[in-house]
Amino acid sequence: MLTAWVLFTLAITALVALGARLIEGALLEVSAPTRWPWIAGLFAAPLIGLLPLLPGAPALRSLLPGSGGATGGEAAGEVGSVLVTGVAGLPAGIQVGPDHLLSTFDPWVLALWAGGGLLLGGYGAALSLRLARARASWTPVRLPEGEVLVSDDTGPAVLGLFRTEIVLPRWCLSLPSNQRALILAHENEHRSAHDTTVVAAGALALLLMPWNLPAWWMWQRLRTAVEVDCDARVTRRAPGDRRTYGDLLLLVGARPSMAPTPLTTFSKSRSSLGRRIHMLTRTRSRYFLPRALILSLLGVGLIVVACLVPGPDDSEGLTDPHVETLQTDPDASGELAQSPQFTPHDESPTIRNSADVRNRLSEAYPSMLRDNGIGGTVMIHAFIDTEGVVQAVQIVESSGHAALDDAGLDVARTMEFTPARHRGETVPVWIQVPINFSQDGAETEESPELVPEGTEPEPEPVAAPDAEDAAQPYFTPHDESPTIRNSADVTDRLSEAYPSMLRDNGIGGTVMVHVFIDTEGVVHEAQIVESSGHAALDDAGLDVARTMEFTPARNRGETVPVWIQVPISFSAR
Length: 573
Known about the structure:
Elements: H1 2-29, H2 35-50, E1 77-79, E2 82-84, H3 99-102, H4 106-137, E3 139-143, E4 146-151, E5 157-159, E6 165-169, H5 177-192, H6 195-208, H7 213-237, H8 242-254, E7 264-265, H9 270-281, H10 288-308, H11 333-336, H12 354-364, H13 367-371, E8 376-384, E9 390-397, H14 402-413, E10 420-422, E11 425-427, E12 429-437, H15 439-443, H16 487-497, H17 500-504, E13 509-517, E14 523-530, H18 535-546, E15 553-555, E16 558-560, E17 562-570
């Protein structure tokens, strides 16, 4: 997970850096300060990278609908217009991607991260000690422009974060007074703008993420932007000395200086000198406003794209229901209930209070929405303990209406189930429950009836599947749900069917599919319930669904054909 997050953050920072560069170009067109995009970018990039790790973060993840990454077996049945369908042993979202491979590098990445942070912190501490020792040998001198420190070979520069001082090399004292005044004006502009604090804050971002190369580039651009902004302020105050000021940049740049990296200096480095000279001599284009608008829109667009890029998760894809990692200790359900995850089981929960849930569904439907014909589906994860009691509920996918979401959670809490079992032992499980609110769904007389547990309904005839049965999804009463029995094959087919063009561009999505399973557990029909938003992924989802094999559903010991709902998720992570 750590390695995947580092790679994700590198990509995010690169997008933010490119966006900041475009916005900087727009600010240059209108002669505005250029430091702000770099300051914002250095701190925005890691924050955007952290969004996927924050529970409940409102980050936009439109490219991966339903990519909650939670897994769980699901109850089978239908309650009024509450459809609870699924397959034991098949996660709610099937994930495919390299995370499980990248996670093997996590210890190395952590070690390099810690080592890089220690080295960078040690370098900063050594630099501070070196400055403190050098500062003790500098001589205070009062000039007409103010008091400065005079060194042998350090400066011109500003020293300090909060209490700043100007240091000049001794040779600057022999310069003509007008040239020395320009140098001191430059350094005083740095002091007024608190530029040393700005540059040090950027360095702190690097200390936290020393491996982030795009962040290092942004920091270098920030240091240059700080100097360019300072040049602009000085020449704006003394427009007649622009040429003299440019000559001074060349003169100071040609002199060796021992000024360390954190200092803001009159001529910081030769690499930025050409850019500063160019900014002093450039003329504004007559099309500067359209160019500024286009550049700013492109820059903001890149940053929005960075916010939309789906982050890594720790989903592990299909899980074989027969793996021996199951904890059957009921006391372990406390930790399991903290977040949705898959628990192997061979007998799924079944609803046992259908009438109560149907009544609650009708009561909880907000009257204002019902009267105006407004409905929707709330996708909910519910945690069921070893007694079949719902202990926790979470929204997986909102209906788009806060009132319906709250009502859906209320309905889910009233549900009672038979407990899930694995090899005869009751186990706590998470299930996914889609709860639909609609006037038609709530009032239809054709809604299938589930008989509450403890009553004896009349036996219902079971017919062999034919073409008409498999044409349209319908509900078949059953007390034993189908279970997936070729998990490995489905995992392989999921990876093979993922369109390479979408995978390579990081585009994924979830396809909700209805599949019809006959009395032998064979899939005869697959239909899309909800599109992923990409036709190629929809086709791939149908292809994967048709490769599935199940144990047949049973009702009172007899095998029955059933329709089930299967969410199939494609993720390039």
